[in-house]
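Continuing the batch. This is chain 6 of the set; chains 1 through 5 are on the previous pages. Same settings as before, nothing changed between runs. Recording input and output for traceability.
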Amino acid sequence: MRLLLAEDEKALSSALQVILKHNNYSVDAVYNGQEAYDYIMAGVYDGVILDVMMPKMDGFTVLSKIRSEGCDVPVIMLTAKSETDDKINGLDLGADDYLAKPFDTKELLARIRAITRRKSEAVSTDVIYGDCTLNSLNYELSSDGGSVKLQNKEYQIMELLMANQKSIISAELMMEKIWGYDTDTEISVVWVNISYLRKKLGQIGSKVSIKAVRNQGYTLEYSE
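Output for chain 6:
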């Protein structure tokens, strides 16, 4: 699962990133509210850990803005404040949970599991295109010819393509949405993962293919 961590205390952010990645989460980290808002609206996240007190835009404002724009990503608010009024404010604005600092990381992990589980139970876990089904719980891509497990980045690329079936997605946009704006990763990693996906589509005998559109990007095609 992919998480956005918005925490301006860089030492705490670094520690949380290590813990979350050790627990098999893919994590993007930002350090102010404006970045948090931009990343949430541009990315595809399974959950957001959002600090209240941040520069440029506080967490309450970020939460209010994304909810008013129809973004229903699960959000856990982090704050040094534990007053009831602050908790009520966050929950009224659309937070899914609230955790006051200092907190036990085991409790944070449990709360992340809870909000992402509720989200997955509320929506279909399958994305379908042509003869292909992508399962968001077990990362399996299947068709009549069988099924195959996708790696994290392969899954995110396939999900992006299947969610935008009539669009051409550029490699640069894939980098921004999946690896993050400030990644040091070379764009060639997109081409490598596309190659892996094409092989896996062949393995399951799917009639879906990933088409490269010259100088534009990639899109899905289904040959009946």
